Amino acid sequence: MSQKFRLKDYVPTWVVVSAVLFGVCTVLTLISRVSVPLADFINSFVATPLRAFFAALTYILPFSLFELILILLLPALALLIFILVKRAGDLASMIRGALSVVGVILILISWYDIVMAIPYNVTPLADRLGIEEKKDISKDELYSVTLEVLERVNELSPLVDREDGIGDIGLTDHELSVQISRAYEDLRDHYPFYFSFASRHKPIFFSGIMTDMGITGIYTYFTGEANVNTLYPDYDYAFTVAHEFAHQRGINRENEANFMAFLVLSHSESTFLQYSAYLNLFQYLASAIYSTDKELYRELYASLDEGAISDVRRSNEITREHMDSPLYKLMNSVNDAYLKSNGTEGVVSYGYVVRLAVAYFNKN
Q1: Closest by alpha carbon to 170, among 270, 83, 23?
Q2: What residues are paired with 228 via a beta bridge?
């Protein structure tokens, strides 16, 4: 007597729920692309609590859970294949196993839509900061702001402790996380559009591979972690931490997270963090000048304090040492495609940092 077919024998109930959730999140993501109020609402009341919860959940871990997951991924896949092969004679069991994998993938995509994709469509950072972004910036405006930032770098650089000529932050990773979290909290008094909480960045053990991929940091939405490459000089390292903390707080666009990192660090009580803020911003501004006046660009860099020049030189050396890696070229293309898929201009959109900086300094 043949056994009666029952759908639940083949399709787990939770997989059906994950498929429904996926459909709902996909629809909300599409609507958010044309409805900023919806994106703002979901970012504030759904995505932000989720980000804060997972950041708190992984805060207690002194290592990157994301990195551990990557290390265990291949063994996990091998185990999954082994289990499916072992159940080859049981069709229902194999189908349930395969659909369970699909269910996990659908949950991860839905999760991404809520905490990452939808927040890409929120009110632009310039509006939230109350500054008017200028699409067209004159050379004189750019030069004036660059000089102001350069002067600040040169004021701060001699105050920075150095080891072998390279700026030394003089903080443990825990102390750095605490100081930048506190800076975010303090800045919220001026710009209360994000939720602030204690964060802990995660230094990546295999930072060499990250450098080969051209990655200085990455926020992993499914672990809530700000993962940071440890190979770059401290002024880069601190800026990357602040950048990834911005992602934790719902500032998902790369260019906006860069400017937010400057804003937070420049308001910090730490001399080194202020130095990190202004030196990184100077590099953005100087690069913009380079595209129109290479001689002026060289003059500006020649005016930098010697210590700052050493830091920039060391950072550039690390990038050059790894940029011939096939991974570097591949990830640059992937990153460009990822940014464009989320409604930005791709890697060239970092020019937006310059427009925000000029607007901000003109206002202040």
Answers
A1: 270
A2: 203, 217
Q: How far apart are CA 235 and CA 273, in angstroms?
A: 8
Give the predicted TM-score (pTM) of the model.
0.90
Six-digit token pair at 90?
């049981």
Average pLDDT, the chain: 89
Pairing relationship of beta strands 225-228 and 201-203 according to DSSP bridges: parallel
- 193 confidence band (pLDDT: 50, 70, 90): confident
H/E run at residue 294: helix 294-302
How would DSSP label each residue in 4-41?
PP-GGGTS-HHHHHHHHHHHHHHHHHHHHTT-HHHHHH
Element (H or E) spanning 167, and its range? strand 166-167
What one-letter code names the amino acid at 235? Y
Residue type, 154: N
Instruction: Quick: pLDDT tens for 195-214.
Output: 888 899 999 999 999 998 88
Q: Which two tokens stand for residue 260?
A: 């937010």
- Domain spans, the chain: 7-121, 125-363
Spatial contact of 274 and 268, defined as CB atoms under 8 Å apart: yes
CA atoms within 13 A on the CB side of 283: 19
Residue in the structure block whose two tokens are 């913009």:
288
How many other CB atoms are found less than 10 A from the CB of residue 92? 14
- Give the CA radius of gyration of the chain: 23
| Short-list 318, 163, 196, 190, CA closest to 266 | 190
Torsion of CA 363, 293, 332, 316, to 10 degrees: -90
